[in-house]
Task: structure prediction
Amino acid sequence: MRKLVALPVLSADALSSVAYGPEAMLAVLVLAGTTGLAYSLPIAAAIALLMLVVGVSYRQTIRAYPHGGGSYIVAGDNLGLLPGLMAAGGLLIDYVLTVAVSIASGIAAITSAIPSLAPATVPLGLIMIALLLAGNLRGIRQAGALFAAPTYAFILAMFALIISNLADSAGNGFQPTPTPHLNTTEGIGVLLIMRAFASGSTAMTGIEAISNAVPAFRPVRWRNARTTLTWMTGLLIAMFAGIIAIVHLRGVIPRSGETVLSQLAHLTFHSGPMYVFVQAATAAVLLFAANTAYNDFPRVLFLLARDGHAPRIFLRQGDRLAFSNGIALLSVAAALVFVVFAGSTDSLIPLYAVGVFLAFSLSQTGMVVHWRRVRTRHWRKSLAFNATGAVLSTLVLITAAITKFTSGAWVALMAIGLFLLLATRIRHHYQTVGEALRLHPAATEAPGHIGARAHVPTPVPAQHPVHPVHPEAGRPDHDRGAGEEEEETPQAVHHLAVVALASLDLAGLRALAYAASLQQPTLALHISPSEEEAERFRDYWTIWGDHVPLHVVLSPYRAIVAPLIHYIEALHHQRPGLTITVILPEIVTQHLRHRLLHSKDAARLRRALRPLPKIVVTSIPFHVP
Result:
């Protein structure tokens, strides 16, 4: 991506957070009345400093991880498995809450302008989540001017609002407007100030997005990513500080039924076109910010599944090249959170900071360990930046966990603990299965007699889509008719066994042995996600002995069933007289809870191939603990 496109696309989450971050801070301070609001400027200054430090820290991450350095990767590489999983858990919770909070805040912007829609907050939010689900399942991508427009419109709206209010205040010497009378419900104290600081710090959510997406930039990628991050950090600080400043000058306080931004826009632009523009731009960018989670949440799940910490169904992409399973899970989780908290931004904010700053803290701490290990040029300066970011992020994390524990932070902490338990148990199960499937020395022997190699047909390349063929396609005219499938005698059946192998293990060898027992021509088929993996499998096959003809099909999007179906359809089209038996190794677990961790390819293949004649799908079970 060009920087002008990457800035709005990757910064939407961070920049849109100024729509609810300042208000979240003020909502805590207002509990202490006018005395509490007096602390808004120094607390905002501390948050702005934190934004600057963390932004500079992530510049160092981009330099160290030019291929993308998400918190899970950085923490896992430098701190170990458990910190990496904790960072991943924080990120996943962050993305779920990004959807819920962004939509809740976007709906609040709409209902502030159209109060009659307020009772429909929850249904409207669910409709938005459903639209995001449908759009992402269809493979909608965040690129180009269409997706850049909401963020640029929001930036324009915020600066128009800030500059107009500053210009008005300049006429009376920047004298603040007195705030309305406030009923004090809490005394001012360290705990209240810490809560306000933690709430306002939610304006930093999404600041790590650019460091995750370095490969998406044009060359020189790391340099363009750092420049974009610098612009994003500068805009975020300017917008956050500007909104706090004009809130202070205008005497605006949070109130039920209308957001702080809507109050400011009403005071500045009344109910004219500019007010509508501010509210529409705010709602649009918040919806777009929710959509950014649909890119990042499935990607983190993909990395976890690749490392064996999540079900392998999250490795696969759908027909539209989207991680459909991860997208569906995110939608369900966000919808559940949205409904439970009734679409209230104020109720959702206490959950937010824990996951965000857990990922920040572990990532920055991991970078400190990285610089101490590699000691490249200017490593001491980079270490100092990352160490400062780690300390400040950890302070915010501890503050949020303590001060917001009873308000909802306990939910986020419990969710992270549950995630760690699930991830480690899933990893343990996959390791157990791997031990059971591992080849032993005797397994390099040929699985008995294999049918004639020379008569195995070579189909068209399956990586090119082969559309489903009619059962009559490819048959000579004299072979058509009512009796074309009359194979009532064994002599009338001409076999070809196709053994689909994901890997060369004991389950695969058992399937090959079964094929050998049929005493018919046999072909092994491997679907590979990359040429490197394909070469690795061919090497294993050669070491095993190359006893069976092997065909490897590249599937760069990790789809398994569709390429396999295309391949079988091509074989059927070329040799309609053959009865093709597709043999699949199938892992069978003892416990019901483990079944979700293994593929259901056999069932999907049966459904897809049922319309074709002379196709038999056979599963060879391999039982594991």
